[in-house]
Design goal:
Keywords: Repeat, WD repeat. This protein is mainly beta and about 325 residues long. The chain has no helices and 32 strands. The strands form seven sheets. It has a six-stranded mixed sheet with strand order 2-3-29-28-27-26, with no helix packed on it.
Amino acid sequence: MRTNFLKSIITTGLMINLAGCFGDTVFEAAPLSEFRHTNEPVLSAALTVDGSMSIVAEQGKVCLWDNKTNQLKFKCLVGDDAKHIELVGFSKDKSKYFISNRTSVHMFSATTGQLVGSWATGKNIARDIAVSADASTILIGYRSGEAQVINTQTSVSKLLKIHRLDINSVALSDDGTTALTGSSDKFAYVWTTNDGKITQRFKSTTRINHVAMNSNASIGFSIDSVDDRQFLDLKTAEERAELNIMANFIEFNDSLFINDDKWFLTGLPKSTLYLWRVADGQQLAEYKAAKLRLRSSVLAVAYDKNSKSIMTETSDGVLEVWPYEPPK
């Protein structure tokens, strides 16, 4: 059900808070606007990289939203095909989106809403999914430690044994040729999707829960279950920086390299959004998203470089727009 309560919040509420590590300034602000996509709990959500569209999946219902008009793009998908949808995402060119119940993947046109392809995972259970910029390649990471690479134009797929244990997170270069995967075996691997050849290895202390990669597969990020949270040089296999934060057990639901890879945007449980500097891991900004239930998470993040604004989608079904202030 669509509940429209779009509201603008005066930017004079912005404030600078001296809450950063070692006395550095951390920017904080109230949202500029927010819009409620649903009153129901959200199982999964995704934003296009610029925040212009959202996918919102609740139990038995999946909707695609145009965030510029706050209108549904198409009739929502309901019924059996919309049950237990726990993984969703967009291609970077915004032409396609996918939904998955972890045992199958369905891809749709974001222009027409028509189904363009479906793939079953067999006996494997999908843990994470990524797509190339033009949606020609799908990467699926499985609990088995295997990864499946699917050519969506030919439906030819390859099942590759990459890790010893569960693959918890996957990332894919824009051209679909390079993958970064993080596993419960404590390793993050960079590998080529053509043949599964591992080109770089990064070891963490505990299981790796989340990885991210920039467009051309030159910079990556890996965070484990305790306190390893590293920016990685994917060409030289060197650590570039650690996140400059003392807290342990940080989790990221979504992340994005922005501003020509100078900054890193992360969405967390507990309705929090952080912005980091890649060069030294310094925290630059912190935002608190709407929390309408006891447990609420930032499920998806985006950045519109034209308006220089940040967008978030939460497990409460709320889209929020935030101001972005580059450090002086």
